[in-house]
Amino acid sequence: MALNWWQEQLITTIVCGTGALLGYLVYDRLLDPRNPSTRIPGPKLAALTAWYATYYDCFHKGGGQYPFKIKQLHDKYGPIIRIAPHEVHVSDPEFLEKIYATRNRNSIVGDGLMVDGSVGSAKDFATHKMRRDALNPFFCHKAVMELEPLLRSKASQLRGVLESYVVPNSVLNVSDLFFAYSNDILRTFSFGSEENLLANLDEAHKQREDLASLLRGSNIANHFGSLVRLFSGLVVGFKGPQALPPAMRDIIAFRSQSRKTIEAILADPSDNYKCATRSVFYELRDSPILPPHEKSVDRLQDEATLLIMAGTESPAKTLTITAFYLAYMPEVMHRLREELYEARTHAPGQKLSLSTLLNLSYMQAVIMEANRLSLGVTIRMQRTAPSETLIYTASYGPKKGTAYVIPANTPMSTLTWCTHTNETLFPDPLRFDPERWLGSGQEVSYRKRCMHSFGKGNRRCLGMSLANAEMSLALAMLTEYDLKLFETDESDVSFHYDFQVAHPPHGSKGVRVVVSKLAN
Ligand code: HEM
């Protein structure tokens, strides 16, 4: 069929327009000698289009695969690579301090979780600092030590659950157990209410699955946030919330429950419902640091959602990994018991205090090793230096010795997957080996400096001290029982998908154990 004049003009315009745009992009992103990023190694396609990252984050093998690809790219191109047109990844422990100095966060932990008003989602330095300053007093080491009674009562309850499973034919899902434990602590501390998910492990299982399902969608939400919001808004608008997938409905219910609690706290000036424990949101309500608009229900609801999700998922994951290896490697359990036994001989008849547990070198080494293998946050924790140009000199690889310019405002990151599995730092990196953290030699202190499961710099984890305290108390309880793995293997605690945090293969039921009394 012959084309008419208008059709010919239209096709010519489209072809020429596309060609010109492509030509411009190729020149701008790959060839322009004035753009220092063009000299940074990496696949041309990644430098040309952000769809390369989107493909590995969202679609390849079900998504969450970019960390694995990035590691392969480093093997080929060396320590610095361009992983998107305006993004750089560096796999060199020596450069960590530079990237994670006091910086701005670019794409952020909170983005995929849709908690725009939270501390984790604050993009600019000043807003982040204000929110962080308001929260810091509750999560610093001293404040956490004062929480010992709350933590201890939850740890005793955890022991009660372990004890209740010392019956024939019963299998305990410790992934659910630790989810409930961390969640109870965070919610009680946040809202001042008495939370008790530990009493209902079926509900804990459901909530754990809901959170996993939300996290599985987080890469899509990161890349297509506006579309996801628009689409779910339309679904809810036209068909009502019941048309959403069950996990999403549960998350919405969880958010609205937090909202109601926050509304009640804001409307409770006489503190009628405040329990004895210090509670974060009562104190944020009265915080002199936050201006009134930072105390809105919407903002505090986002803050609560991030605190509870981050404060539940990560400690629960580390504890689950620990429990797995205590059952899988009896020699680790044995050594831990010996250390606790020895500590008790110094304080006969007394419970070991939290500060004693935090000073037990082997116990802390076990926790460090579980944190290393948990990888903390697996997404790219990107930082930007808004007005500083950084220079990186390749320390290995085909271009060793070459200096590269990272222009100001370029998002840059180092994945924990790259550092924590660096063979030079951690020989045989996938092996669980607490010994790596013992001693005070230079090698061990360098390792400690490089480890970044809690992040680094001004945006590092807020809950680090709390996490270490609750993990130490739970671990002491675990050693009082024998644990035998039930239909669980190493894949259940391994890294297969990057959905903000490490996810095991689909279908993993979590770590399940048979619990028995400790044989004397
Ligand atoms: C083993 C336990 C934990 C691990 C491995 C962990 C890991 C991390 C990491 C890596 C970051 C930094 C993300 C970034 O740099 O972009 C982070 C941030 C954060 N974490 Fe944790 N976390 C843990 C426990 C907790 C707990 C118990 C809480 C409860 C309060 C918490 C609350 C937060 C918050 C609010 C942020 C954002 C901080 C900010 O942007 O200033 N985390 N966490």
From TrEMBL:
Task: Identify the cofactor(s).
Answer: heme
Lineage: superkingdom: Eukaryota
UniProt xrefs under SUPFAM superfamilies: Cytochrome P450
One of the entry's Gene Ontology molecular-function terms is: heme binding
Q: What Pfam families does UniProt report for this protein, alphabetically?
A: p450
What keyword terms does UniProt attach to this protein?
Heme, Iron, Metal-binding, Monooxygenase, Oxidoreductase
What Gene3D superfamilies does the annotation carry?
A: Cytochrome P450 (1.10.630.10)
Q: Which residues bind heme?
A: 461
PROSITE patterns per UniProt: CYTOCHROME_P450
Matching InterPro entries, A to Z? Cyt_P450, Cyt_P450_CS, Cyt_P450_E_grp-I, Cyt_P450_sf, Cytochrome_P450_monoxygenase
The family classification in the record reads: Belongs to the cytochrome P450 family.
Full protein name: Cytochrome P450
Q: Which organism is it from?
A: Meristemomyces frigidus
Lineage from the top down? Answer: Eukaryota, Fungi, Dikarya, Ascomycota, Pezizomycotina
